[in-house]
Write a structure and sequence with these properties.
heterodimer; A: about 110 residues; mainly beta; seven-stranded mixed β-sheet; four-stranded antiparallel β-sheet; about 0% helix; B: about 110 residues
């Protein structure tokens, strides 16, 4: 079955470390997205990519970086510049027009 | 710019009660409208959608009608179950906005047995 896989499900980061969250899709979707969700809050867009080798900043891109070298993959790196990274991170993909398909999320905690 | 407003939560209902979650939107063109549901610790799942005015989306007993005149897309269910407890997000997608979604803040629903 087609879908989006996010890994790991839980991730712990030490102060000053960079960590990378994986997002892989086999839906042949052109567009991919990263959102951040804080407890009791809605979704905030971090980065999005509408085509391979191209991506744009969302509303809260500072302290994050992405790459889109393959259509199937859109990894998110949380850098040490992100001062408050503890959150639930959601990846989504879309065929360009129509609904989003979401992964099951990665919960990142700073220890 | 485009935006989505949802009723404040949390909403707490008894099993078999009638549910309404209000959603209104602002858009520059003709958006498609969606409801997503998020169960604890999981990602969002598409619940239903409508792509043009007067369309009714429906799924699992939930319904919502695209009302262009009131710019609304309220979610309803006639008889909720404990298993419907989740967070519900209203969202819109518009071609003039690069097809990127705009999500509402979410409404938490708790259904008590």
């Amino acid at each position: 079955d087609g879908g989006i896989t996010q890994s790991p499900k839980y991730l712990f980061r030490k102060e000053g470390q960079n960590v990378t969250l994986s997002c892989e899709q086999n839906l042949n979707h052109d567009a991919m997205y990263w959102y951040r969700q804080d407890p009791g809050q809605g979704l905030r867009l971090i980065y999005y990519s509408q085509i391979v080798n191209d991506f744009q900043k969302g509303d809260i891109a500072e302290g994050y970086s992405v790459s889109r070298e393959k259509k199937e993959s859109f990894p998110l790196t949380v850098t040490s510049a992100q001062k408050n990274p503890t959150a639930f991170y959601l990846c989504a993909s879309s065929p360009g027009m129509g609904s989003y398909t979401f992964g099951s999320g990665t919960r990142l905690t700073v220890v | 710019g485009n935006s989505v407003t949802q009723m404040e939560g949390p909403v707490t209902l008894s099993e078999e009660a009638f549910l309404t979650i209000n959603c209104t939107y602002t858009a520059t063109g003709y958006p498609s409208l969606f409801w997503y549901v998020q169960y604890p610790g999981e990602g969002l799942q598409l619940l239903l959608k409508a792509t043009k005015a007067d369309d009714k989306g429906s799924n699992k007993g939930f319904e919502a009608t695209y009302r262009k005149e009131t710019t609304s897309f309220h979610l309803e269910k006639g008889s909720v179950q404990v298993s419907d407890s989740a967070v519900y997000f209203c969202a819109l997608s518009e071609e003039n906005y690069g097809q990127n979604f705009v999500f509402g803040p979410g409404t938490r629903l708790s259904v008590l047995p």
